[in-house]
Design a protein that fits this description.
The structure is a single chain. It contains 9 helices and 19 strands. The chain has 363 residues and is an alpha+beta fold. The protein folds into 3 domains: 87 residues, FAD/NAD(P)-binding domain (3-Layer(bba) Sandwich); 110 residues, FAD/NAD(P)-binding domain (3-Layer(bba) Sandwich); 118 residues, FAD/NAD-linked reductase, C-terminal dimerisation domain (Enolase-like, domain 1). The strands form 6 sheets. A 5-stranded antiparallel β-sheet has the order 15-16-19-18-17, sandwiched between helices. The chain has a 4-stranded parallel β-sheet with strand order 8-7-6-12. Strands 1-2-3 form a 3-stranded antiparallel β-sheet, with no helix packed on it. Strand 10 and strand 11 form a beta hairpin.
């Protein structure tokens, strides 16, 4: 049964939707999130768009100003510059600052080459409108355009749920344990954006599996995040799973992390199609990958191999032993695994002595 009304808690075991009151043994909060619009002075005096309504425009913006240099901001910037708009991105810190800096630099270089103006370390201080133009004041100057897109993040949709009446603790999202259960009301679960953490559609699907195992079958079930991949759909794409290089070295120590790297320009399929920009690097600890970063064409497709490896605790030898068809981009993953083993095989004095001994007596 689907009830098309807003739901809210009226007690720890009851939810009301319209005129209907539902009593349940288990309640799942899966309300998702919406665009977050910061309270910049003047923002409510102008027309602004978000990623949810920018597609309602039926005319191309002459000059699109984007506040926010994260994944959504960069995806929208490239889309609109390719449609013929002038685009200026204003970012208060570093553009794509949550990504591996080497990979982010490849994407940002590509966007700048296409004509996107990216202003970093420039927090928006004030927004105004005059003579049909919207202006954004920053410490690095004032930037004006015909349209404004807010792309600074997401806000979880929990404001109308009356969570206090349901004894459901929360801050910006529902407070849950590793089992995705409310820490204050064990009858309530939260999944997806409502549970806090990574805000991706595929995470919500993963969370659904976690709570179903617990609610329906009574099995111990906990979420983990180390194997969750994500992708920024720019051109080139940027994909990540697990720890970045910096995070891996901080968590495990510089001397315990080996970074295996392979460049797209050495892949025959990339050469044939003229898509040589990009690289893969895999962070390895004790022979097992703990993270992978890919920037380049089809990065979102390639990252799945490393998500599988991390999810199942596979060693690098499992990927190195895979046979990838030639010529495909899939060879990039295998070659990255090979790059991990090559120094250990060919630069190891002991291996060289063993090979020399064997060759001495082979017929």
């Amino acid at each position: 049964r689907v009830i098309r009304e807003f739901g809210r808690f009226i007690s720890p075991t009851e939810v009301q939707a319209g005129e209907t009151v539902i009593t349940a043994r288990r309640i799942v909060i899966a309300t998702g999130s919406g665009p977050f619009v910061p309270s910049i002075p003047g923002v409510n005096d102008v027309t602004y768009y978000t990623n949810e309504n920018i597609f309602d425009l039926r005319e191309r913006p002459d000059h699109l100003i984007i506040i926010g240099g994260g994944p959504i901001g960069m995806e929208m910037a490239q889309a609109h510059v390719r449609l013929g708009s002038k685009v200026t991105v204003i970012e208060g810190a570093k553009a794509m600052g949550n990504d591996d800096p080497d990979a982010a630099a490849v994407v940002l270089s590509s966007l700048r080459a296409e004509g996107v103006e990216i202003i970093e370390e420039a927090p928006a201080e004030e927004i105004s409108k005059a003579k049909g133009m919207i202006s954004v004041k920053t410490p690095k100057g004032t930037f004006s355009g015909t349209h404004l897109l807010m792309a600074v993040g997401r806000k979880v949709n929990i404001d109308r749920l009356d969570l206090e009446k349901g004894n459901v603790a929360h801050d910006r999202a529902v407070k849950v344990g590793a089992d995705l259960r409310s820490v204050t009301n064990k009858k309530v679960y939260a999944v997806g954006d409502a549970a806090g953490g990574l805000q991706f559609t595929h995470v919500a699907g993963y969370h659904a599996g976690v709570v179903i195992r617990s609610m329906l079958f009574g099995l111990p079930s906990k979420q983990r995040t180390d194997h969750i991949p994500w992708v920024t759909f720019t051109d080139p794409e940027l994909a990540q799973v697990g720890l970045t290089e910096a995070d891996a070295k901080e968590a495990h120590g510089n001397h315990n992390v080996t970074v295996a790297r392979f460049d797209y320009e050495e892949n025959d399929r990339a050469i044939a199609e003229g898509k040589r920009t990009g690289f893969i690097k895999v962070m390895v600890v004790k022979g097992r990958p703990v993270g992978a970063t890919i920037v380049g064409i089809h990065a979102g497709e390639l990252i799945g191999v490393w998500a599988l490896a991390i999810a199942n605790g596979l060693k690098m030898s499992a990927v190195a032993g895979m046979v990838a068809p030639y010529p495909t981009y899939g060879e990039i993953n295998k070659r990255a695994a090979g790059a991990y083993f090559s120094p250990r095989l060919f630069d190891n004095p002991t291996v060289k002595r063993v090979v020399g001994f064997v060759q001495k007596y082979l017929p």
